[in-house]
Amino acid sequence: MSHKPTVIVSSQRTSYIRDDASSGILGVNEFSNKNIWKALVAECLGTFVLVLIGTGSCINMGEPTTDVVPYVRIGFTFGLTIATLAQAIGHISGCHINPAVTFSLLLTGDIKLAKAICYVIVQCVGAIGGSGLLKLIVPDSRVGGFGVTAIGDKEMTAVQGMLMEAVLTFLLIFVIHGVCDSYRKDVKGSAPLAIGLAAAAAHFCGIQYTGSSINPARSFGPAVIMNSWVDHWIYWVGPLLGAAVAAAFYRLLFKVHKEESYDL
């Protein structure tokens, strides 16, 4: 009896590795599995909710309207939304809800190219949908900046903003790689909560600099609805750069391998 779970887990892990290897670089054969379509719907819905709820917290509905940015409200809204979504749909799609996360997992070989491309597409569609619905809900007099991410200081350059986005995204995705490492046995707490807290910390620091996007889709949705594209490139280049560096660091230096698996 004590050996049965080990045999089952080992069998599942072997099967998973074999399926990945047989799918090649593109992984097109994954689309013959009906679960991939559930995953795409989950990614679209998850990003829809994240952008709707997250950017909704950026809009000031109080009286009178002020220029004070509610850092704490925004930070915790994004962090808690990400944590709860990870708990809700993580078993279906992995709850990337962020092209930077998908890109990082593509670089580490945890997702195939075809699936990654489809993930990014549905994430962007979901982000546009979330922003579109929020625009219908919010009175025109309260729209304001509508959660469009922008550099917060006139003296800050676009390159500086891009670097800040890269650093903030590195934090988020490095944590994701760490808490989701399949061979770690020392993680006792909640992985979704750790990821949500990392997102909240990034927002507490980064809102004053760049709006703390750390998610190209999160910036893309409001930009489409408001037709606002000033310095929009930094919200793609920065997060993707941070995602690539996080993937390299964790994969090359910190990833736990099967033979190194241990309890701390």
Instruction: Count every beta strand, where a strand is a DSSP E run of 2 or more residues.
Output: 0
How much is the average pLDDT?
Answer: 86
Task: Report the β-strand fraction as a percent range.
Answer: under 5%
End-to-end C-alpha gap: 26 Å
| Number of helices in the DSSP assignment | 9
How would you characterize the largest beta sheet?
none
Can you give me a brief rundown of this structure?
With 264 residues, this protein is an all-alpha fold. It has helices at 4-22, 35-56, 71-93, 99-107, 113-137, 158-179, 191-210, 216-226, 234-254.
Structure characterization notes:
This protein has helices at residues 4-22, 35-56, 71-93, 99-107, 113-137, 158-179, 191-210, 216-226, 234-254. It is mainly alpha-helical. It is globular, with a radius of gyration of 19 Å. The two termini are 26 Å apart. Helices cover 65% and strands 0% of the residues. Residues 1-22 have low confidence and may be disordered. The protein is built from nine helices and no strands.
